[in-house]
Design goal:
Layout: H1 6-30, E1 40-41, H2 44-55, E2 75-77, E3 80-84, H3 99-131
Antiparallel strand pairs: 1-3, 2-3
Helix pairs in contact: 1-2, 1-3
């Protein structure tokens, strides 16, 4: 038996996005010495908004440009718009990965993931309390 709530679905998507942010950050860090490599990322807030619209049945495509300076949709990761991050200092070899930026993104994504896990625990506790309320 599987019990799903709208909040659990939303938190699941939140965790998916946090996990993707961690993967992209690790990928960027791993390619710091790769000539010509371009930093990839996505705007977490706008992707979360799109996900919430999709979960609520509204049209999931909004026209947000994104606050991360994304140059455009380079690839699709599931339904998340992942693109090259603009506005970063490019080295002579064409690589634009900034270890400082990636370190901050990693810390941010870790905090988001931990927050999502805690909120999901509370949601499951709430559901279990509702199930066992009569006993």
């Amino acid at each position: 038996m599987q019990i799903e709530t709208p909040m659990a679905e939303a938190l699941g998507k939140y965790l998916d996005l946090s996990s993707l942010q961690l993967k992209l950050t690790a990928q960027n860090m791993a390619n710091i010495d790769t000539p010509g490599y371009r930093t990839e990322g996505f705007d977490f807030a706008s992707e979360m908004r799109r996900s919430m619209k999709a979960l609520s049945g509204a049209n999931g495509s909004d026209g947000d440009a994104g606050a991360d300076g994304l140059l455009g949709a380079v690839s699709e990761s599931g339904d998340v718009r992942v693109g090259s991050v603009g506005g970063l200092l490019e080295r002579p070899d064409g690589n634009n990965v900034s270890m400082d930026r990636e370190g901050m993104k990693m810390a941010e994504a870790q905090l988001q993931f931990r927050t999502g896990v805690e909120l999901l625990k509370h949601e499951f506790t709430r559901v279990l309390d509702a199930i066992h309320e009569d006993k």
